[in-house]
Design brief:
- The chain has ten helices and nine strands.
- The protein has 360 residues and is an alpha+beta fold.
- The chain has two domains: 122 residues, Phosphorylase Kinase, domain 1; 179 residues, Transferase(Phosphotransferase) domain 1 (Transferase(Phosphotransferase), domain 1), CATH 1.10.510.
- The strands form three sheets. Strands 1-2-3-5-4 form a five-stranded antiparallel β-sheet. A two-stranded antiparallel sheet has the order 6-9. The chain has a two-stranded antiparallel ribbon with strand order 7-8.
- The longest helix is centred in the middle third of the chain and has 20 residues.
- It is globular, with a radius of gyration of 20 Å.
- It starts with 47 loop residues before the first strand and ends in a 49-residue tail after the last helix.
Length: 360
């Protein structure tokens, strides 16, 4: 997207989805994103042409790739084994693969296949052409309430689905929410997701989005996702998170103090929702009560949401990213590309860690 162009906002209401509002282009049909378990053969790196880097992380990066012999484009997450092991992320990576291969929801990214070679682990995901919600939020400064409400509502449906499977997501933030070509969200990056029937004690997540019980090592469960939703709504409406400091420990201190500042232009209904989500006492936190996700959906801030129509993608999204082709990357930031030798393996290379990733 050209940052100099006006930010394209559509009015939000409950009318039916209108395909004529969506840019015309050839998109990969959803049925091609088969699970590895259902694939007829195992894929490898030579089945894909690596095109451009879409994002980078601590132990790998995400590329746009094209499956050879087709016009199908995917996002390939490549994770360097030595770094995964060094940073003690083996359990998280194996859990991510296990979870993402089993979940299927309109607002969660789909996986095509996984494989590995001597150096890297690979996850081939559907390519979400609209890029990160984070980028669009930074370009806009903040979102109008109808736009923030729309994204929050779709996130709620995804969290409700994950929690029904006893999966805690644990990494909700604008960087992990993608916008597809029609303007709907897709949650990605399940590296911190975990199947939790009661509580877990792992310290993980992004500092600004951590719930107090994670910081205090009290043990945590699904309630942390509802806390993170409160942070997300606040950041979408104001353009910055409620608890911020230059150091992680400063952020943790502010989270534990629990003082939330609201500018006067935030309406009282939105403020009430955020405060009820950002409640330190998990026995009183909205979403973690008897009604679970239903309590959040029934809050007055969402009173105009038709939840079934939203799930069916029958609501016109408030913003549709500008995309000109199936392989358009204008909604992603630019990164230096790795050297071609980085992904070349030879017969002399030894796969020291293959036994740690048998399911890849």
């Amino acid at each position: 997207m050209d940052p100099s162009q006006p930010y394209q906002i559509y009015p939000f209401n409950s009318i039916k989805f209108n395909p004529s509002r969506i840019p015309t282009m050839q998109m990969v049909p959803e049925h091609v994103y088969a699970r590895t378990e259902n694939a007829e053969r195992k894929y490898c790196l030579n089945d894909f042409d690596r095109l451009i880097t879409l994002g980078t992380g601590t132990f790998g990066r995400v590329f746009l790739v094209k499956r050879r012999g087709t016009n199908n484009y995917y996002a390939m997450k490549a994770m360097k084994k030595t770094e995964v092991v060094r940073l003690k992320q083996v359990e998280h990576i194996n859990s991510e693969k296990e979870i993402i291969s089993k979940v299927h929801h309109p607002f969660i990214v789909n996986m095509f296949c996984t494989f590995q070679d001597v150096k890297y682990l690979y996850m081939i995901m559907e390519y979400i052409i609209g890029g990160e919600l984070f980028l669009h939020l930074r370009r806009a400064g903040n979102f109008p309430p109808p736009q923030a409400r729309f994204y929050a509502a779709e996130v709620i449906l995804a969290l409700e689905y994950l929690h029904s499977l006893d999966i805690v997501y644990r990494d909700l933030k604008p960087e992990n929410i993608l916008i597809d070509q029609t303007g709907h969200i897709k949650i990605t990056d399940f590296g911190f997701a975990k199947k939790v029937e009661s509580r877990t004690w792992t310290l993980c997540g992004t500092p600004e989005y951590l719930a107090p019980e994670i910081i205090q090592s009290k043990g945590h469960g699904k309630a942390v996702d509802w806390w993170a939703l409160g942070i997300l709504i606040y950041e979408m409406l104001l353009g910055y998170p409620p608890f911020y400091d230059e150091s992680p420990f400063g952020i943790y201190d502010k989270i534990l103090q629990g003082v939330i500042m609201f500018p006067p232009y935030i309406d009282r209904v939105a403020k009430d929702l955020i405060e009820r989500l950002l409640t330190e006492d998990i026995t009183k936190r909205l979403g973690n009560l008897v009604g679970e996700a239903q309590d959040v959906k029934q809050h007055r801030w969402f009173k105009d949401i038709n939840w079934q129509a939203l799930y069916n993608k029958e609501i016109i999204p408030p913003f549709i990213p500008k995309c000109h082709a199936v392989n358009d990357t204008s909604n992603f930031e630019r990164y230096p590309e790795p050297s071609p030798e980085e992904f070349i393996t030879t017969e002399s290379d030894v796969d020291t860690y293959r036994d740690l990733f048998l399911n890849f």
